């Protein structure tokens, strides 16, 4: 008997939902290789902890960037390593595998994604827009006729979508998300405080100290350790949330601009639904202090943080796979299966580079 599995193939983390067991894997989408032999030294959490700590002979690679496969072979290798933990070879029939993708992904890049999943798992691979899957995992009733909106701030992309009757009727994807926030903090500390820090330290500071709201009284205080660029010696720096907001606010404003533009382009009836229903906020970026209130103030629409923002997509894949096995599996939720001709096209057309997406 086969087991259906859902995969949230994120830029920062890969989550796997296993039918009947829930989320069974949540690992960083990172792999460490020997530079000469290309042998896998570590992957997942073990490779993540090697970032910034490797000898010259080892390189740590993120195979996915901004929700797009940048290194096909290493993405396939990561999927094989993770899926092997589920012992797929024991199954008597092919499993169904549902994988999510950013809403702005090109058709060719989507073919590459499906091929990597098929080669890694031997499964029947289905695909679904990430925002729609996140909405299902967040508990939104996407089958209702009234339009709803979700903003999913992930590691590599921020996906915004308008949903109605089980379909995405309008969407946008922005290459500004958690990783971009981390890099902005790194560059700010380097320029303003002459302190060099790594991405892990920047991420930790983001989640413990950053606030999306300007703190007029008593801003949050944080401490970060790095290397003083003037002396080359280790240094600890105390910094407050208002200082960090100066480098992050332009990025937050880009998300607001995209959300506002998406809503303004809607027909009046659908825009009215969004005002009535509010906006669901999911993804790791939803956990930034005050992000929901910041977006609500800027858009003048209620914004609600999902109960499980980090795992909405993975949970949604599992829920959608369950729905596929019911008698209702006809409408209204449409799941895409890559066609033969799409796969043939993928063999001859190179995926566009990230900046061309």
From TrEMBL:
InterPro entries: Actin, ATPase_NBD, MreB, MreB_MamK-like. Coiled coil: none annotated. SUPFAM superfamilies: Actin-like ATPase domain. It is found in: Cytoplasm. The keyword Nucleotide-binding applies. GO terms for molecular function: ATP binding. GO terms for cellular component: cytoplasm. ATP binds at residues 11-13, 155-157, 203-206, 284-287. The keyword ATP-binding applies. CDD domains: ASKHA_NBD_MreB-like (cd10225). Keywords: ATP-binding, Cell shape, Cytoplasm, Nucleotide-binding. It holds the Pfam family MreB_Mbl. Its main location: cytoplasm. One of its GO terms (biological process) is regulation of cell shape. NCBIfam families: PRK13927.1. Forms membrane-associated dynamic filaments that are essential for cell shape determination. Acts by regulating cell wall synthesis and cell elongation, and thus cell shape. A feedback loop between cell geometry and MreB localization may maintain elongated cell shape by targeting cell wall growth to regions of negative cell wall curvature. Belongs to the FtsA/MreB family. Forms polymers. This is Cell shape-determining protein MreB. It comes from Dolosicoccus paucivorans. The lineage of its organism: Bacteria, Bacillati, Bacillota, Bacilli, Lactobacillales.
